[in-house]
What does this fold into?
Amino acid sequence: MELAVYNINGNKTEKTVKLKKEIFGIKPNENAIYLDAKNILANSRQGTHKTKGRSEVKGSTRKLRRQKGTGFARVGDIKSPILRGGGITFGPKPRDYGFKLNKKVKRLARKSALSHKMKNNNMTIIEDFSLEAPKTKDYMEILRNFKFETKKSLLVLSEGNENIILSARNISNSKVKLVSQLNTYDILNTQQVIFAESAIKEIENLLMK
It folds into this structure.
């Protein structure tokens, strides 16, 4: 499997990159993708939601009316869950939604997501580049050269480049990630994955372990 390498002007160069079929050409495992994406989203939840129960609501414990002889239903204190302003019955409490997932399943999910992008021609490789200064205009010009300015795009770098990261920060539909940060959800939640040339070898080494 080979892909052409483009420069930042959107022009095809004479270089090509050989891609390992074991990573970019497998049959996508939908269940592994589902489990890994669910794991990523679950681990990102704060789980800080909280409601007050009957014992936590501020109010008197005085019985509102006598038990019998009024013709109305029996009632306790003003903190009763059936009264307005009372405690919440079985309300949410702070909890951890995260769960563990086998490393092999996570690795398979990333391979499946990359193979899915490769199969649908949603992957591009560009030469390694850098920007002289953090300018959103310069990064946007690169996206325009590939006609990706209206698409959700993800640029994958082998190492951190502060100018590139800062330049893409203000573009709502564009993200920049390092190979070490790349996960299944990032790959799936974008229309076009752009790999820096040096990032290909690094991700192959990472996923072939």
About this structure: The mean pLDDT is 93.
